[in-house]
Amino acid sequence: MAKGLKFGVMCSGTAFQKWQAEAIHLLRENDHELSLLIIDGRVSQAQEDEKPGRARHKYSFLWRLANRFLFKHEQKAIVEMEPELHNITRRVCWVTEQNFSEYFHEDDLKAIKSANLDFILRFGFNIIRGEILNAATYGVWSFHHDDENKYRGGPPGFWPIMKNDSVSGAVMQRLTDRLDAGIILKKAWLKTLLHSYRTNLDVLLFVSSAWPSDIANQIIAKGYDAVRPSGTSAPIYKVPGNFTMFIFLLKLFRNRIVFYWNDLFRAERWNIGIINRSVQELVFSNTEVRREDVLWMRERSSRNYFADPAGFIEENKVHILMEDYSYSKNKAHISEAVYDPYSNSFSVPLKSIESKEHLSYPFIFVHGENIYCLPESYRYGYIGLYKRNYSEGIFVEDHVLLDHIDAVDPTLINHHDKWWLFLTLRKYSNTHLYIYYADELDGEYKPHPANPVKIDIRSARPAGLPFIHEGQLYRPAQDCSESYGKRVAINRIVKLTETEFDEEFVKYIGPLKNSRYTKGFHTVFGLGRFTLIDAKRSKFNFSHFGRQARHKFRKH
Fold it and tell me: Which of the listed residues 207, 235, 260 is the one where a domain comes to its end?
């Protein structure tokens, strides 16, 4: 990588919260130079929650009590960094406070500007305004751990739970004079963990800790390319009063009961269906899918289910590969069934790809005279490409496409004479979209410099075969905001190059109404005039219950 950027950190000393320390570590590990600590002379980091301006009144007694004894956030634990920062230049600053804003003095501004910083990371002070915002080449970078279009102010990660919002946002912005309405540098949407405020905020903090280094790396790779300032006019929230906090605690208790009930007693029962309509017609027509439009496969037993359909057409019959999951074994293999349009029926599924580890999402594509399968095999730590053996009617592993990666739902397409591999990683399987690319199918796959190119619980994880409509490329993705595989989001890809990626949401498909399977819908795979789908219902399963109960018992 080229020479890194120079940055400063606004702070209250050398003690940082865990996620903040991780952000600094990642920047330095990526060869970005920490040149200046801009220290608030009024407070120490250990007193962060007792700063002037923080609510200390009787009306917020319950909030302060819960925040101190109940919400012990792992990511807010204090990490002392003095040993590794002892040689970093420091500037202790006192600011002038005017109308809830803070302004730096002229001599401090001159000293900070003389450091020739590329950016300043704000982990201290309060609402800063004035010339300090332009004291570095790329300004002052600050976090807002909420969706600024819904919730400005704070406390972070609190109000989405209070408002029963299924999605929590997080933003990294270059500060302007407008509160929580700066120039967007990075934005993400994660699932709101409605049953746990502690975990909900910890996830937001942990995920965002990588952003400063990601943004700095991208500036070096392709230059500064920030989104325009947020035009938000969302209300500004404050620390909750005692009555609001009482209602909040009741909601947490209720949500936790619902969470454990669903986790223990509601197992997924997926099944596969075929629709006699093209994927373009399915997506862009104004008519909804009716019950009679879908022919479902016959469910095998309560101990198994079929999901993740993909396929190819051979001799006018639709060959469907699928995840064949066993609750008793807690793993799946890939099975194949054949749909005959003339008899309007499915054959009995037979094993097509089996291994010692779990396999799912058998993504199918045709290249030249060969049919390939790219199953999800994250437990092996690589992406294996399988080729159709026509004589035996099975798929055999051809070669490793990408090694040392725990990829989820790998999806490969050839677009503009280049191979593009979309996937998520096991750790963030529903939220973080990654892209790799190569010139040849069996070539070297390089990571996109903007990885993860997207962080969005509503539209990141691949959900089937991308398709062309009116010259535009569309990508199906899962919306897991309310629950896993709730529905499919259709995204139009606007930019797809070796340095850029952008897509825009078009519409949601599913879940299916007036059907036995109304709880989820997470695959759309077009095959000419047919479209393969899957959908789910929920039902109690003894194997699932036992495994979940044992897991929770060991956890606690």
Answer: 260
Whether residue 279 sits in one domain with residue 405: yes
Shared domain check, 137 and 26: yes
- Are 407 and 431 in the same domain? yes
State how far the alpha carbon of 216 is from the alpha carbons of 4, 5, 28, in Å.
8, 7, 11
449 and 470 belong to one structural domain? yes
CB 174 within 8 A of CB 185: yes
Measured distance CA(453)–CA(437) in Å, rounded: 13
The total of structural domains in the chain comes to: 2
Tell me the CA end-to-end span of the chain in Å, nearest whole number: 44
Say yes or no: 185 and 145 in one domain.
yes
Domain that includes residue 332, residue range: 268-555
H/E element holding 29?
helix 18-29
The whole model's pTM is what? Answer: 0.91
Residue found by looking up tokens 């309007």 in the block: 344
On whether residue 1 sits in a domain, the answer given is no
Q: Is the peptide bond before 155 cis (omega within 30 degrees of 0)?
A: yes
Provide CB contacts within 8 A for 505, sequence distance 6+: 458, 459, 489, 490, 491
Strands (E), 54-116: 78-80, 89-93, 95-98, 101-104
> Which is nearest to 435 in space by CA: 464, 402, 457?
402
**Digits of tens for pLDDT over the chain (556 positions)?**
468 999 999 999 999 999 999 999 999 999 999 999 999 988 644 444 444 344 456 788 899 999 888 898 999 999 999 999 999 999 999 999 988 899 999 999 999 999 999 999 999 998 899 999 999 999 999 999 999 999 988 899 999 999 999 999 999 999 988 766 789 999 999 999 999 999 999 999 999 999 999 999 999 887 766 667 777 788 989 999 999 999 999 999 999 999 999 998 999 999 999 999 999 999 998 888 888 899 999 998 888 999 999 999 999 999 999 999 999 999 999 999 999 999 999 999 999 998 888 999 999 999 999 999 999 998 899 999 999 998 888 899 999 999 999 999 999 999 999 999 999 999 999 999 999 999 999 999 999 999 999 999 999 999 999 999 999 999 999 999 999 999 999 999 999 999 999 999 999 998 998 889 999 999 999 999 999 999 999 988 888 888 888 876 666 5
Give the domain-ending residue among 260, 281, 310.
260
- Nearest by Cα to 296 from 322, 257, 315: 322
* Per-residue exposure over 468-485, b if at least 16 CB sit within 10 Å of its own CB, e if not: ebeeebbbbbbbbbebbb
Helix, strand, coil % in the chain, rounded to nearest 5:
25, 40, 35
Do 415 and 449 touch, CB atoms closer than 8 A? no
* Phi, psi torsion values for 193, nearest 5 degrees: -85, 90
